[in-house]
Amino acid sequence: MKKNILSLTAIALIASAAIFTGCKKDDTTAPVVTPNGASQTIFLQGSYTELGATAEDDKDGVLTTVTGGDVVNVNLTGVYVITYTATDAAGNEGTASITVTVRNAADALEGTYTASEVDILGPYSYNPAKPFTVTASTTVNFRVNTNRLGDYDNNAVYMMVTGTTISIPSQTIANVGSGTATCDVHSRQTDGSGTITSNGFTLTYNDAKVAPCTGTRTGVVATFVKQ
Questions:
Q1: Residue 12: what are its φ and ψ, rounded to 5°?
Q2: Beta-carbon contacts of residue 199 (< 8 Å; ≥ 6 apart)
Q3: Count of structural domains within the chain
Q4: Contact, 187 vs 173, CB < 8 A?
Q5: pLDDT grade, residue 25 (50/70/90)?
Q6: Residue 200 maps to which CATH number?
Q7: pLDDT by residue (tens digit) across 107-147?
Q8: Which of 19-33, 148-162, 188-202 tops mean pLDDT?
Q9: Nearest alpha carbon to residue 87 among 133, 117, 56, 120
Q10: Which of 91, 118, 144, 185 has the smallest C-beta neighbourhood within 10 Å, fewest atoms?
């Protein structure tokens, strides 16, 4: 008799476990999350509007809580992934993502160039082993940075681009040049303007030594061809 009672108890426990397990597995479908906005590209220092997302579950219907949202820094270039998450009553989690790309409007000018110049001393070319490069600023829209301008590697300037027009704002470049004599290493005040062409750009600029050093390269005409 005891054996029969034990057998019936075991059967009941197994059946209960099966029913409980079956209930747990009834809802295994994650909710569907739908972003209200699409992936997009914006320019530095522009604006981004967070539109959020909606979520619907096959068992629970529309879910009112969707987490995630704006991680976009409009003042720094990059690709930002925005992920939205919703969880149903059974603990199933659904996600969806969009990307927002923040870029510099002048980044098409980025690249490596060969450069040649004509000034009061005549024409000359940059050393091919030391190419002229342009990189887009990651924090200021329409600004691009150069690795050098003129005859010294560390004579680097930044330029502003508007459409096909380039301007070199007046800026002091420190520690230009090399050597041990007075004013071999000096500072320069550089400014100028230019135009984007089909294969690069041209510049006309002035390059003056800053006191107490003297000497000025005025009206330098430079041509830059993209490689």
A1: -65, -40
A2: 225, 226
A3: 2
A4: yes
A5: low
A6: 2.40.128
A7: 999 999 998 888 877 787 777 678 899 999 999 999 999 99
A8: 188-202
A9: 56
A10: 91
Token code pair at residue 203? 């510049």
* Six token digits for residue 175: 């520690």
Residue 111 within a domain = yes
Residue 86 lies in a domain: yes
Assigned domain for 18 exists: no
Main-chain phi, psi angles of 15, to 5 degrees: -65, -40
**Over 70: is that where the pLDDT of 22 sits?**
no
At 38-74, the pLDDT tens digits run 999 999 999 999 999 999 999 999 999 999 999 999 9
The string over 70-80, giving b where at least 16 C-beta atoms fall within 10 Å of a residue's C-beta and e elsewhere, is eebebeebeeb
**CA–CA distance, 50 with 223 (Å, rounded to integer):** 44
Whether residue 24 has pLDDT greater than 70: no
Name the domain boundary from 62, 81, 103. 103
Strand partners, 132: 113
Locate 61 and state its tokens: 């219907």
What is the reported pTM? 0.81
Contact by Cβ (8 Å): 98, 38: yes
- Which residue type does 113 have? Y
Query: Same domain for 186 and 144?
Result: yes
